[in-house]
Amino acid sequence: MTTTPARPDQEERLQAAFDATIARHDRIEPRDWMPDPYRRTLVRQIAQHAHSEIIGMQPEGNWIGRAPSLRRKAILLAKVQDEAGHGLYLYAACETLGVSRAELTELLLTGRQKYSSIFNYPTLSYADVGTIGWLVDGAAICNQVPLCRTSYGPYGRAMIRICKEESFHQRQGYELLMTMMRGTSEQRAMVQESVDRFWWPALMMFGPPDTQSPNSERSMAWGIKRNSNDELRQKFVDMTVPQAEALGVTLPDPGLRWNEERGHHDFGEPDWAELAAVIRGDGPCNAQRLAHRRAAHEDGAWVREAATAFAERSAQDRTEAAAPTTTGEGGR
Ligand code: BYC
């Protein structure tokens, strides 16, 4: 967004008002002045989040046509549709910062903006639908509940609604896994195999360790992020261990154990080189996910053109209806 530059004395006043709002834990709203780096960080994070929701439809969407029952299909359809909705709320929140959805889409499709690493892993069995709900949406909840209190108003309000829906997603995943664990030994093995594949990538969703997270400190000072990557990762592990026990699955980490002194679970180190590779574009499904998204975008061109033509025509009709008539009779 191009804003009229403030004079230096004005800028100081505006910066002081911004700092005071952040210090009070109040919200910054779109009409408020904000420093450019704050705006850029928000665009980066919210866009990446929106793209994740949209790309995140693909791994599960893969199973809609092969759901094992009508009930499972209806649940999965509803969930994948919710993800599209989350993407839209987030693109709309990002648009309040002066970038258009078309620009953001272009940045995603040309690889200049990122999306979550987790969606670059394949979904190889129906158990993965349950595991994504339980672990991936579980991690998303841990990460996103604090974002309901983020300092930028439109982002925080979008997150409130998203978190309510994520909670349903997490429960449906856990319920699916619980059903499979009560089934045959083959079904139990499918669940364990799926958890083995998704555990470490789920821990990586929280980002690099705090010592290697270039954005965390500033984002936390601005109240964009309320917790560090490592704090949220720890919270997720502590929340998930008892759930795994209730489910009867083993989490694939020999270093996982309760630490009485810390009051938290100790756990092993994720493979940070793997996270870096996936973020760089070298994960198992990066190329496939982007190719699919590009094709869907091109296939949808006629819908965008039709919607634009309809909006223009409606605006023209409204202008004509509002214009005074030349006969002086008024009205139509
Ligand atoms: N994947 O300084 P850092 C969902 C990047 S949607 C890819 O710690 P920051 C769901 C990071 O962007 C899940 N990239 O960054 C949807 C940065 O790169 P740049 C998405 C990652 O921003 C459908 C660099 O690494 N959730 O759950 O302070 C179905 C250094 O990192 C990742 C959100 O987007 C990663 N995992 O913290 C089911 C939540 N981690 O941009 C489920 C909102 C780091 O400087 N986002 N990077 O080049 C956040 O909370 C934060 O952006 C992050 C990263 C914690 C992810």
Rounded to the nearest angstrom, the distance between the terminal CA atoms is 41 Å
Note the total helix count.
13
What is the H/E string? HHHHHHHHHHEEHHH
Give the biggest sheet: 2 strands, antiparallel
* C-alpha geometry: globular
Task: Provide a quick synopsis of the model.
Residues 311-332 are annotated as: Disordered. The protein is mainly alpha-helical. The chain has helices spanning 8-23, 36-55, 57-61, 70-95, 101-109, 127-144, 153-181, 185-204, 216-221, 229-247, 272-280, 286-299, 301-322; strands at residues 257-259, 264-266.
Polypeptide structure, described:
- It is a single chain.
- The chain is built from 13 helices and two strands.
- The chain has helices at residues 8-23, 36-55, 57-61, 70-95, 101-109, 127-144, 153-181, 185-204, 216-221, 229-247, 272-280, 286-299, 301-322, and strands spanning 257-259, 264-266.
- The two termini are 41 Å apart.
- The model has no long low-confidence stretch (mean pLDDT 95).
- Bound molecules: benzoyl coenzyme A.
Secondary structure layout plus pairing:
Layout (H helix, E strand, L loop, with lengths): L7 H16 L12 H20 L1 H5 L8 H26 L5 H9 L17 H18 L8 H29 L3 H20 L11 H6 L7 H19 L9 E3 L4 E3 L5 H9 L5 H14 L1 H22 L10
Helix pairs in contact: 2-4, 4-7, 6-7, 6-8, 6-10
Bound molecules: benzoyl coenzyme A.
Question: What tags apply to this protein structure?
Answer:
332 residues; globular; mainly alpha
